[in-house]
Design goal:
6 strands; Nucleotide Exchange Factor Grpe, Chain A, domain 2; three-stranded mixed beta sheet; three-stranded antiparallel beta sheet; alpha+beta; 4 helices; 3 domains
């Protein structure tokens, strides 16, 4: 069969319909393949972003357990400084010891700050259950209800996450309405 006869056969009504059907089928396969490719690309990009975010979080929060342990040290230094009698009773030895303990506390808090860990001291702020743990309520404080009137133990945040809530006492009373 010559090339002219083959062209004429493809141009026949049955040949044209067959070509159109094959073209439609090819276009459908192409569209489906394109859709799969776009979905695969989007999925790959999402996985890349998720992995990047997880790496960043791991770097940011890797020290969280160590930091929690160091908070106990900070608490003990603060307790030591708070338990000292009135300054008038200090001798030179006591004064030097307290100066050293205070310097150690400052250095520890500064080191925590350098690593994204900051102290929460919410005295006088409004109670927020996301950052504070109410230990008890106090009546007749002269403060609006829900105000933190005493900080029993400071809280800490590492970057943007709560490491430990502040333990607080809250002013009691009816909420004004």
């Amino acid at each position: 069969m010559s090339d002219d006869q083959e062209i004429n056969r493809d141009q026949s009504p049955d040949g044209a319909a067959d070509l159109e059907a094959r073209l439609a089928e090819t276009e459908a396969v192409l569209a489906a393949t394109k859709d799969k490719l776009l979905r695969a690309l989007a999925d790959t990009e999402n996985q890349r972003k998720r992995a990047q975010r997880e790496r960043e979080d791991a770097g940011k929060y890797a020290a969280a357990n160590f930091a929690k342990d160091m908070l106990e040290v900070a608490d003990n230094l603060r307790r030591a400084l708070s338990s000292v009698p009135d300054e008038s009773e200090w001798d030179d030895l006591t004064r030097n010891l307290l100066t050293g303990v205070a310097a150690t506390e400052r250095d520890l808090l500064a080191a925590l700050e350098r690593h994204g860990i900051r102290q929460l001291d919410p005295q006088g702020e409004r109670f927020d259950h996301n950052f504070h743990q109410a230990m008890f309520e106090v009546e007749n404080t002269g403060q609006p209800p829900g105000t933190i009137v005493q900080v029993l133990q400071p809280g800490y945040i590492i970057h943007d996450r709560l490491l430990r809530p502040a333990m607080v006492a809250v002013a009691k009373g009816a909420i004004p309405g």
